[in-house]
Amino acid sequence: MKDLLSFIVEDGLNRGASFCEVRYFEERSNSISVENGVARALSAGILRGVGVRVIVNGRWGFASTNIPTKQDIKKALEDAISGAKSITAHTGEEARIVEVKPSSDSIIHDVKINPEDVSPEEKVKRVLELERYARNFSDRVKDTFIIYRDVVTKVIVCNSFGTLIEEVTPRTRVYCRVIAKEGANMQESFESIGNVAGYELIEDIKAEDFSLKTAKRAVSLLSAHPPLRGTHTVVVDPKVGGLFVHEAIGHNSEGDLVFSGHSIISDKMGHKIGSDLVTIIDDPTKNHYGHFIYDHEGTKAKPHLLIKNGVLVGFLHSLESAAKLGGEPEGSARAQSHHYPPIVRMSNTYLAPGDMTLEEILEDIDYGVYLSGSQYGYVESQKGQFTCKVEEGWLIEKGKLTEHLRDVAISGLTLEALKNVTAVGKDLRIEMPGMCGKSNQSMYVDAGAPHFRIENIVVGGRR
Amino acid sequence: MMEKIDLVTPVEKAIRMLSKFDVDFYDVSASYIRSLRISIMGRGINEASSRTDIGIGVRAFKNKGMGIAYSQSLEEADIEATVKRAVSFARVSQPDPYFRGIPGPSKAPEVPGLCDKEIVSLTLDDAIRIPKDMIDSAESVRRDGMYHGGFNANYGRACLMTSTGVSVEIEKTVASAYIQPVYRRGDDVGSSYEFDYGISLAEIDPWKIGKKAAEKAIEQFGSKKIESGSLPIILSPESASSLFSSLLLALSGEPAVKGRTFASRLLGKSIGPEILEIMDDGTIPGAVASSTYDGEGVPKRPLKVVDRGVVLTFLHNYYSAGIMNVESTGHAIRGGYRGNVGAGPSNIRVSPGDSAIDEMISETKRGILVIGASFMPNMVSGEISTTIDEGFLIENGEKKHPVKNLMIGGHILNLLENIELISKEGRTFGKGHFFPSIKIREAKLSGK
């Protein structure tokens, strides 16, 4: 396959491309769906194909095929070139990239237990065992679901700089959902554990940290109350903190959104945009769900310091955004599959720890809201307005957690919220394995934070 | 853009292979999608791309357990491996007590107008005029914009065959276009977006989209925070669409009949004013969510879901209908060749009321006009806590200024119950969906 990709790159240059990148993608996955004690579906899938990206006459063209034969990849190359030519005559955003030294490497991430070596029967048995803890927790548990998934992704990147990188990445993840019911009141809770890892991740899970925890939370939410709406001081746990960091600043740091005028911080490099306590890092080298060694442009990944003590010091870059913004590409361009071009993505994004305990963060809050567990979020990066949906919360009264809250969401403005971070804990945890959506592409990411405090955040609710 | 990829032969091959295994039921689906896309980013058009996606998916059932396998290769050896994997997984999976098989064949009159010849033969050279016109139109309003957006055209064919005798082939096109301009005035940002989509290219009016997006974006300059309170809200057709789509999704399929959504207990119940009527109709000629058959090969049919404010029915696939011992309503949705079959609405049509949108605004002393917000609730509890992405404060009957950092909280059923007015005008999406504007008596707002 590597020879074929190199041949196509050469062919692309011969046909007039100033840059040509050919990327093979293969993803083999297995999943098990358990519902209320029944493993009702097992599934397996294979995705594979080739994406070809070129710059011709200073414009991007891209094409992909599921059929990785010489004939079909050559056809994709022709389509990519004719695509670039089709927009040549029309003014728009020029395709420009930094020249980088070629890389050549082959990476296979080690696992202790290859999921392929574990029989489907054994996997089913283990997932049912985890699910049982949730189901048996209470008669108020109405429904329990666990989805297990193992996936191995192989990416080969070959480009006209001479880069030829192969990386094989196994990921394993389990997701638990519990619905609890009491009369007409129904509540649900979620938990997810995943990493760049093999089946050992599943063997090592303790039910009390996963399925049992999910069930306990779902049942306890039955007696929680909606929050008091308004603007409050909030303290966020590592999951809500991770979601905040991802939505409030992470997307705004993505170089493609910056150069295309869709980031609220596009003109803020070197400016103080957060309090002294805010240091934010995106680090693909850390062994979490968003981990990789090379990005999908073949650039070796490095940790990216985005904000240092409140000052914006870096953006995340692709070859293109580095050229347009004057940065170094440090491995932030990834694509969902061969059907998509690489775009700038976060990896494992987190707020660096401070030196406080949770008790110290809470102690001088007279009235506020403690937020725990993240569901999902989104940001309108061009406006810097973000929303985070939260699993549960507690009222903070005179430094103590009191009333249990549910159906909580927060909304904030990036440039205000970062300045309003007034206390940061020392208990950093990165444990939000999930998928991030951007430009119709979904990508493996993780996020985290220590506990921290933000003043003046809008908390939604119906009380 | 069209290639003649044969889907029937590989599906038949898989069916023949499956017939030799000891399984109870099976189905095989294959699809081919050719997509063209021209992306807009930054100063204008930035990339032209094309994509060919092919795949085959197999579902096998043994003792009420299901095995699913899919592959992006139609090569014989890969089909065989896919079939074997689905069968072996079916044997390991456990009996689903609610499973009662898969549907048999039915004949239905073909829904016309679902494949636009212009899209079938479209090239990137032809397509370029649409994003170009969107940008030119936006620039005719204001010239210093930065943009995101694009134009997509898809041509797809799919084939489904089952052990129960279903044999269905479909062919469909869809085109969509959107643009999001961003303007800056110091630290102030004016941004919005506009879009359209449909079965045919003729339905996409790039000049209208570009102009409207630019005008909406400019209107967003000078947004302000407002205080928390309880105020009436007026939902544009775009934001009303997420409220009604969420309701119909919560009335759909397995989650609805197994008591897992806020709407599970609504059959026969009044959820809104008498003027509230909602139809779901997947048989509208030329409409974006229409098809002759659903994802299981059951004929689509029009279905009145809400009449005089009362919920009449769930939207069923064969599985959920079986649980309630009723017929499928033809709302199975198959997620391409990857095998999963769920249920959901097709073309949603909320009947127009008798109010005018201008009157809704002019008769509001103080309230919020919501242009963009997701009213997708927590599907289990029905609670909504959402940010108004784009909206205006109304004071003394006039749009005063855009709002920011403002949230709406409440239960979706409270919002529906409090529908006070439904407009007579609205917006049709993709020749199928129709949503009017609605005025909700009161909603809880969280602000400064």
Tags for this entry?
heterodimer, A: 463 residues, alpha+beta, PmbA/TldD fold, 2 domains, 7-stranded mixed beta sheet, 10 helices, 21% helix, B: 448 residues, 8-stranded mixed beta sheet, 7-stranded antiparallel beta sheet, 11 helices, 21 strands, 23% helix
Task: Give your account of this protein's structure.
The complex is a heterodimer of chains A (463) and B (448). By secondary structure, chain A is of the alpha+beta class. Chain A has two domains: 2-221, 2-Layer Sandwich (PmbA/TldD fold), CATH 3.30.2290.10; 230-460, no CATH class. Helix content of chain A is 21%, strand content 41%. Chain A has helices spanning 2-14, 70-88, 120-135, 200-203, 211-221, 238-250, 255-259, 319-325, 358-363, 414-417; strands spanning 19-35, 38-56, 59-65, 104-108, 141-159, 164-182, 185-195, 230-236, 280-282, 304-308, 311-312, 333-334, 343-344, 348-351, 367-380, 385-397, 400-413, 421-424, 429-430, 434-438, 441-449, 452-460. In chain A, the strands form four sheets. In chain A, strands 1, 2, 3, 4, 5, 6 and 7 form a seven-stranded mixed beta sheet that branches. In chain A, a hairpin with a 2-residue loop joins strand 20 and strand 21 (441-449). Chain A is globular. Chain B has 448 residues and is α+β, with helices and mostly antiparallel strands. Chain B folds into two domains: 8-218, PmbA/TldD fold (2-Layer Sandwich), CATH 3.30.2290.10; 224-448, no CATH class. Chain B is 23% helix and 38% strand. Chain B is built from eleven helices and 21 strands. Chain B has helices spanning 8-19, 76-92, 117-120, 124-127, 129-141, 206-219, 237-250, 253-257, 318-324, 357-362, 412-417, and strands at 25-42, 44-62, 65-71, 146-162, 167-185, 188-191, 194-198, 229-235, 278-280, 303-307, 310-311, 332-334, 341-343, 348-350, 366-372, 383-387, 390-395, 398-402, 407-411, 419-429, 433-446. In chain B, the strands form four sheets. In chain B, strands 8, 15, 16, 17, 18, 19, 20 and 21 form an eight-stranded mixed beta sheet that branches. In chain B, strands 1, 2, 3, 4, 5, 6 and 7 form a seven-stranded antiparallel beta sheet that branches. In chain B, strands 11-10-9-14 form a four-stranded antiparallel beta sheet, covered by helices on one side. The chains are: A alpha+beta (463), B alpha+beta (448). Strand 2 of chain A pairs parallel with strand 3 (65-71) of chain B, so a sheet runs across the interface.
